[in-house]
Amino acid sequence: MSTPVTFPAGGETCVGRLYGDAPGPADARKPCVVLCHGFGGTQDTPAFTATARDFVRAGYLALTLDYRRFGESSGLPRQLVNIADQLDDIAAAVGHARTHPGVDPDRIVLWGTSLGGGHVVTAAARDPRIAAVIAQIPYNGFPRKVEGRSTAATLRLLAVMVRDATRGALGLSPVYINQVGPAGETAVIAGARAQQTVDAMTSATWRNEVAPRSLWDMWRYRPGAHASFVRAPLLVCLGANDAETPAEKAAELARRAPRGELRTYDHAHFEFYRDDVRRRVTADQLAFLARVLPR
């Protein structure tokens, strides 16, 4: 069961969904997991909704959201990743969860995957009331070399980034590129494994396009710079074969956090959204919460 919710963020309206039944008047309020999707993601993708339901089955409430300019949330131009705005959207989602009568405001958990995995570290560093953090295959800077991308393909991507950023400075609409494409295509992520994940995915709102000016913002973003300020227990789940959010960069988040823990899986980035892998990783995350979060 899920219920649509809305909340304001930066003059826009973010749309989320609250999963689980709120406790009755005589029941204790429940902890709530706020789930934050990755680069260009939306809250209705299958692996994301399945994870929210897994937390509900374990006794939590779960709140998902679309960042502004994505999915059902408002904001223009569409498909534009803005790091500061997305962090504000997460803070707004946490604030909304804390006002819900069924939620224990001091037992809010942040869960994020990929870019969202980096976001939850930064967001928790800003909010000392966060009770626990789970960062799955988290972004902590671009890889030094992108697997399978030639120098020519890199130059083509840089050229379209410059062109789109120039259009943005002039107040013009984006020149979109694909988020995911086959090897050799001018896309943010180009490769067979990523393409297979997209081909198997069903979503009413996800669009395989993004404004490439977004990548300049990501280029400067380092969630690891904030990890030492996270007071809550932090679990980092990384993939040993991850080419998109490399293990050595992701592990930095756990090393820098005062209460950081690290779990490594012998998988690539997009395999974490495969159901068998997802279930195993989520089971470990639930075990972590059972240990660190007072019930």
| Element pattern in H and E | EEEHEHEHEHEEHHEHEH
Largest sheet: 8 strands, mixed
Gross morphology is globular
Oligomeric grouping of the chains = single chain
What percent of residues are in strands?
A: 15-25%
Rg estimate, integer Å: 18 Å
Helix content: 25-40%
Q: Low-confidence parts, pLDDT < 50 over ≥5 residues? A: none
Your description of this structure?
The chain is an alpha/beta fold and 295 residues long. Helix content is 35%, strand content 22%. It has 8 helices and 10 strands. The chain has helices at residues 46-57, 83-99, 115-126, 151-169, 192-199, 214-219, 247-256, 275-292, and strands spanning 2-9, 12-19, 30-36, 61-65, 103-113, 132-136, 178-181, 187-190, 234-239, 260-265. The strands form 2 sheets. An 8-stranded mixed β-sheet has the order 1-2-4-3-5-6-9-10, sandwiched between helices. Helix 1 runs parallel beside helix 8 and helix 2 packs across helix 3 (115-126). The protein is globular. The two termini are 22 Å apart. The relative contact order is 0.15. The mean pLDDT is 93.
Short description:
This protein is α/β, with parallel strands linked by helices and 295 residues long. The chain is built from 8 helices and 10 strands. Helix 1 packs parallel to helix 8 (275-292) and helix 2 (83-99) crosses helix 3.
